[in-house]
UniProtKB/TrEMBL annotation, chain A:
Residues 22-211 form the Electron transfer flavoprotein alpha/beta-subunit N-terminal domain. Gene3D superfamilies: HUPs. PROSITE patterns: ETF_BETA. One of its GO terms (cellular component) is cytosol. GO terms for molecular function: electron transfer activity. The lineage of its organism: Bacteria, Bacillati, Bacillota, Clostridia, Eubacteriales. The keyword Transport applies. The electron transfer flavoprotein serves as a specific electron acceptor for other dehydrogenases. It transfers the electrons to the main respiratory chain via ETF-ubiquinone oxidoreductase (ETF dehydrogenase). Its cofactor is AMP. This is Electron transfer flavoprotein subunit beta. It comes from Pelotomaculum thermopropionicum (strain DSM 13744 / JCM 10971 / SI). Keywords: Electron transport, Transport. Belongs to the ETF beta-subunit/FixA family. InterPro entries: ET-Flavoprotein_bsu_CS, ETF_a/b_N, ETF_b, ETF_beta_N, Rossmann-like_a/b/a_fold.
From TrEMBL, chain B:
One of its GO terms (molecular function) is flavin adenine dinucleotide binding. The gene is FixB. GO terms for biological process: fatty acid beta-oxidation using acyl-CoA dehydrogenase. The keyword Flavoprotein applies. Its cofactor is FAD. This is Electron transfer flavoprotein, alpha subunit.
Length: 257, 330
């Protein structure tokens, strides 16, 4: 079973977001982590490999710093990685990134493609599905349980108000949701082994892509931060008294109940 | 030339979802400036009865595909239908709800149409003919203004509870265009084996107007019952912080926050939630926030409109009783 996992590096979940003097998102002093949903994807890939045998390849696109995230995935137990870093990637959108990833995958043999269902930074949740579309793969999105057998994937996915169990033939894309598994931590042994694992680094040129091909379809014109809220009202009094007053305020002042 | 504002209509159990009316309202807002027609796409089985309400809420035209093969949503069938319709009719804008279905369909269709997609929009502006969408990034810790300058159609998914549905106009009718359904079994790769619905009468978290949420202060799974009682009185959904989910007290599908659901209800009642950056990211765009926590220094009070410093096990039951009394006398 050959499994490819799409990995994105994101800001730490506790990161405080600010804008720099150019109005761009300030990256200074921010801890970078593997997108938490992609960790579920890596863990699932490792479990499938442990059960069925095979090989796990990590694929990541981004600035050179992504090497830390890629290394961590290798330390968790992935076998090898492909990294695409290129200055020309700055300003690309989901369309461009998906094109780059599908070029990489087009040169690889794989039975299963795994990814987090969304990244916690842009939250746009479309790159993996676009990749599946370009490669003509079926997908199951937002999956909390996955079984692989005899050339098919049976996946339980979240829908509004419940769950749906869907079967698709392999190769397919599965996107991971929280609940799928508990990602493991890299062990000391894993970290030592990771140093010897192959990381292939590619530029757009080497993939046969140029900037014109990954020209973004959508563009961010500006960023802004939420306006801080005015200080709220602490309701005094004992529990019963405060609860009664809160009820009155929600009704008469805020008019929300 | 691309023309027309399309909205994808979602329905459930024989009823148009409220979000669809919100999309129609967003579509009309664009149409007012561009003078284009607003069309609703209605796919499903046995759904022709839903056309009327789409007209009343602002659709000029309804593309109706009523077929057994569309009885349940599948990416392949719905994706093929929508992309082929769009290729043929060249709309300038397609809006979908930011729902499980909308997200799933939009990304694949955007790729089929070689166009951009702006996910999870919470606002739109039309300046000098350029449609600009506002979307949260870092789960609402910042916002981006995004445009799709050249590619058409412009596609976007719109979050629930952002646009207010228009008033239905009696007698307003949409023109119905029956869409031929040429779907082959070989076009379909997803086989739906089972659908398990939670037997809850409460609204879905992402669509709820009111959310009652619990955190570490709930102390155990059994205590969520007191939040459920308040939720039922208010017609609210129940939510939870990561601390409560990671402690195994409640299923992760209830988690609100950066690694859970992002919500924007009218009222968010946070009980025993300290207010980590991650949690605030998921709920701080709620219109009114109530915090009940026994720690006066808890972060949650910084974003709360109303706060009670006290034991939630004493406060919440009284609140439930008071709200019950109040709502009974209205």
């Amino acid at each position: 079973m050959k499994i490819a996992v799409l990995l994105k590096q994101t800001f730490d979940t506790e990161a405080i977001i600010s804008l720099d003097s150019n109005g761009q998102i300030n990256r200074q002093g921010i801890n970078l982590i593997i997108n938490p949903y992609d960790e579920f994807a890596i863990e699932e890939a490792l479990r499938i490999k442990e059960k069925h045998g095979g090989e796990v390849t990590i694929i990541s696109v981004g600035p050179p710093e992504i090497q830390d995230a890629v290394f961590q995935a290798l330390a968790m137990g992935a076998d090898k990685a492909v990294m695409v870093t290129d200055d020309a990637l700055a300003g690309t959108d989901e369309y461009g990134i998906a094109l780059v990833i599908s070029k990489v995958l087009g040169n690889q043999e794989f039975d299963l493609l795994l990814s987090g269902w969304r990244a916690i930074d842009d939250g746009s949740a479309q790159v993996a599905l676009r990749v599946a579309e370009i490669l003509g793969l079926p997908h199951v999105n937002v999956v909390t349980r996955l079984e692989i057998e005899e050339g098919k994937a049976t996946a339980t996915r979240e829908i509004e108000g419940g769950y749906e169990v869907i079967e698709v033939p392999l190769p397919a894309l599965i996107t991971a949701q929280k609940g799928l598994n508990e990602p493991r931590y890299p062990t000391m042994k894993g970290i030592m082994q990771a140093r010897k694992k192959p990381i292939k680094k590619l530029s757009l040129d080497e993939l046969g892509l140029d900037t014109a091909k990954i020209h973004p379809k959508v563009k961010t014109t500006s960023y802004f931060l939420p306006t801080p809220k005015p200080e709220g009202k602490i309701i005094p009094g004992g529990p019963a008294e405060a609860a009664r007053e809160l009820c009155r305020l929600m009704r008469e002042e805020a008019k929300v109940i | 030339m691309a023309k027309g504002i399309w909205i994808f209509a979602e329905h459930r159990e024989g009823k148009i979802k409220k979000l669809t009316y919100e999309l129609l309202s967003a579509g009309r807002k664009i149409a007012e400036k561009t003078g284009e027609e607003v069309s609703a796409l209605l796919f499903g089985k046995g759904i022709s009865g839903l056309v009327d309400s789409l007209g009343k809420y602002g659709a000029d035209k309804v593309y109706l595909a009523d077929n057994e093969k569309l009885a349940k949503y599948t990416t392949d069938f719905y994706g093929k239908m929508l992309s082929e319709l769009a290729k043929k009719n060249q709309p300038s804008v397609i809006l979908l709800g930011c729902t499980v279905l909308g997200r799933d369909l939009a990304a694949r269709v955007a790729q089929k149409l070689n166009t951009g997609l702006i996910s999870d929009s919470i606002g739109l502006e039309l300046n000098n003919g350029q449609l600009t969408f506002v979307r949260p990034i870092y789960a609402g810790k910042a916002f981006a203004k995004v445009v799709c300058p050249e590619a058409r159609p412009i596609m976007a998914t719109i979050r629930p509870n952002v646009f207010v549905p228009g008033q239905p106009q009696a007698g307003r009718r949409a023109e119905v265009v029956t869409v031929p359904v040429n779907l082959e079994k070989s076009d379909l790769r997803q086989i739906i084996k089972d659908v398990i619905m939670r037997s809850s009468t409460r609204p879905e978290l992402t669509e709820a107007k009111i959310i009652v949420s619990g955190g570490r202060g709930m102390k155990g799974p059994e205590n969520f019952k007191i939040l459920e009682e308040l939720a039922d009185v208010l017609g609210a959904a129940v939510g939870a912080s990561r601390a409560a989910v990671d402690s195994g007290w409640i299923d992760h599908s209830f988690q609100v926050g950066q690694t859970g659901k992002t919500v924007a209800p009218t009222l968010y009642i946070a009980c025993g939630i300290s207010g980590s950056t991650m949690h605030l990211a998921g709920m701080s765009s709620s219109k009114y926030i109530v915090a009940i926590n026994n720690d006066p220094d808890a972060n949650i009070f910084k974003v709360a409109d109303y706060g009670i410093v006290g034991d939630l096990f004493e406060v919440v039951p009284v609140l439930t009783e008071e709200c019950k009394k109040l709502l009974a006398t209205q």
